[in-house]
Design brief:
The protein is of the alpha/beta class. The protein has two domains: 183 residues, FAD/NAD(P)-binding domain; 112 residues, 3-Layer(bba) Sandwich (FAD/NAD(P)-binding domain). The protein is 28% helix and 25% strand. Strand 3, helix 2 and strand 4 form a beta-alpha-beta unit. Helix 1 runs parallel beside helix 2 and helix 1 packs parallel to helix 7. It starts with a strand and ends with a helix.
Length: 302
């Protein structure tokens, strides 16, 4: 059969789109590799009515809703998308579709510091809007990394949740104005490079510097480099902007006719609730696109 839409990626954006399209009585199949970006996190926050749920619970609920309205869900990697659209799965299955939505998210490239990846999602965080309230008033570290603008902004921003914030520059050369701004926010600055994170009983307890000094901290924020999982989009010929992200309009429509992108694959700051909204916007635009094709076909048949 030929599907109306193949949705690639089963996070909030993909599930939201698949559910809405299924409710619109479109034949839709969602293909998901089963490796959600937020799997290491214990809880989801900032998502209306789902605050405190685990990422697993949120996705399970979304899958049940999509299936309830008639969407199909397949677990597999997509190896390529051909013009047309023919979608090839790692399992060997080939899907034919009138349109495609790519919602494959992004990956976080973390600072290469021992302890960061081991505690990622628990004692090591990156989004204060997602986790700041839960670690409020604790001694917090912000550790510099390759994402300089994000990290410097983070150091000032996180001061809203705690009076005890230390910014470990870790190779970032601050300007005089940046130091003045951080000092005005009462953020301490440590320029000695970081050697590793210290843990006690599996819980982050401090930041060790290359000179052996350990600064007690119970939470560490880092600024990952956000890398979109956009290989499918680029390979088929989508335009990539100078900032490194694939070009898409507010509905997610790309430079390729019939191809959309939604969520973190095309919007690096997108939180879960924003990704879900992006999936909904894309689905409505996809349905209107399909409607136009339906009308043209019906007129031709007459």
């Amino acid at each position: 059969m030929t599907y109306d839409t193949v949705v690639i990626g089963g996070g909030p954006a993909g599930l939201s789109a698949a559910t809405l399209l299924a409710r619109a009585r479109r034949q839709v199949v969602l293909v998901d590799a089963g490796n959600p970006r937020n799997a290491p996190a214990d809880h989801v926050h900032g998502f209306l009515s789902r605050d405190g749920a685990s990422p697993h619970e949120l996705l399970d609920s979304g899958r049940r809703e999509a299936l309830h309205y008639g969407a199909e869900i397949l677990q597999s990697n997509v190896t390529r998308v051909d013009d047309g659209f023919t979608v090839h799965l790692e399992s060997g299955t080939v899907l034919n579709s009138r349109s495609v939505l790519v919602a494959t998210g992004l990956r976080d490239e973390l600072p290469d510091i021992p302890g960061v990846r081991e505690h990622w999602g628990s004692g090591v965080l990156h989004c204060p809007y997602c986790h700041g309230h839960e670690v409020r008033d604790q001694p917090i570290a912000v550790v510099g990394g390759s994402n300089r603008p994000f990290t410097v902004h983070q150091a000032s921003l996180i001061r809203q949740w705690s009076r005890d914030v230390v910014f470990f520059t870790n190779g970032i050369e601050l300007t005089d104005n940046e130091r003045i701004r951080l000092d005005a926010r009462s953020v301490a600055i440590v320029d000695v490079p970081v050697a590793r994170l210290v843990a006690n009983g599996g819980v982050v307890s401090g930041v060790e510097l290359v000179d052996g000094t350990v600064v007690p901290r119970s939470v560490v924020f880092v600024g990952p480099t956000f890398v979109p999982n956009d290989e499918l989009l680029v390979r088929i010929g989508c335009t990539r902007l100078e900032n490194g992200w694939v070009a898409a309009d507010p509905t997610g429509r790309t430079s390729m006719d019939g191809l959309w992108a939604a969520g973190n694959v095309s919007d690096s700051p997108a939180q879960l609730i924003n990704s879900a909204a992006a999936g909904s916007r894309a689905a409505i635009d996809i349905n209107h696109y399909l409607l136009e094709l339906d009308v043209i076909e019906a007129v031709g048949a007459r």
